[in-house]
Amino acid sequence: MDYQSIINKYYPENDALRRLLMKHSRQVADRCLAIADRHPELSLDRQFLEEAAMLHDIGIRWCQAPSIHCHGTEPYLRHGPIGGELLRREGYERHARVAERHTGTGLPGLEPETPEEQVVCYADKFYSKSRPDRVLTVDQAAESLARFGEAGVAKFRRWASMFE
Predict the structure, then answer these.
(1) Residue 63, SS3?
(2) Predicted local confidence at residue 151, as pLDDT
(3) 60 three-class SS
(4) Distances (CA, A) of 113 to 14, 84, 105, 133
(5) At 71, which helix (H) or strand (E)?
(6) Is 0.70 surpassed by the pTM of this model?
(7) Sign of CA dihedral 151, 84, 77, 118
(8) CA-CA distance, 57 to 15, in Å (whole number)?
(9) Other C-beta atoms within 10 Å of 93: how many?
């Protein structure tokens, strides 16, 4: 799979949104690859991890989040399912599952299941598109999830014990 061609198809202009998407996605991909390298016992699919991380936020263009250059009409919470639909139409089911399951530590009915889905979801929590130069610590990332409930924080901390 050539993830760059999909990004080019849906983000053809080299505008602020594309630059932000590429920076954030590369940050997430690099963290995913570092986890794979640190944990060979997990037998993670490195190529798939990189592709999925680079495409996990492909649906943001259609959402309303002006502070990060998104001027669509959908609520931002829908960017994962939108990305999933888009990637499924392109014929990339595994990548679609990552896109639709990476929000928070998963949404009801859309929770990361495979190790690769979990790693991308986990890695994503360290980087914010609204503050792209900031890298959170494990504790800061866990704290950012607290407003959504303790179950998500507990899941994130379990992942931290597996992936760090």
Answers:
(1) strand
(2) 95
(3) helix
(4) 34, 15, 11, 29
(5) strand 70-71
(6) yes
(7) positive
(8) 16
(9) 10
Distance CA 35, CA 129 (A): 21
| Pair of tokens at residue 35 | 């986890």
Q: Which residue type is seen at 24? A: H
Residue type, 53: A
Angle at 154 between CA 142 and CA 26, to 5 degrees: 45
Q: pLDDT by residue (tens digit) across 102-127?
A: 999 998 899 999 999 999 999 999 99
- From residue 36, how far is each of 44, 45, 95, 120 by CA, in Å? 6, 8, 17, 11
Q: Residue 34: which H helix or E strand, with range?
A: helix 16-38
Neighbours of 102 (CB within 10 A): 29
> Can you tell me whether residue 70 is helix, strand or coil?
strand
The conformation of residue 74, written as its DSSP 8-state character, comes to B
Residue listed under structure tokens 């888009």:
86
CB atoms within 10 A of CB 56: 32
Place of tokens 């990637």: 87
Phi, psi of 145 (to 5 degrees): -90, -15
Which tokens is 63 given?
A: 């959402």
Calculate ∠ Cα 97-101-106, nearest 5°: 155
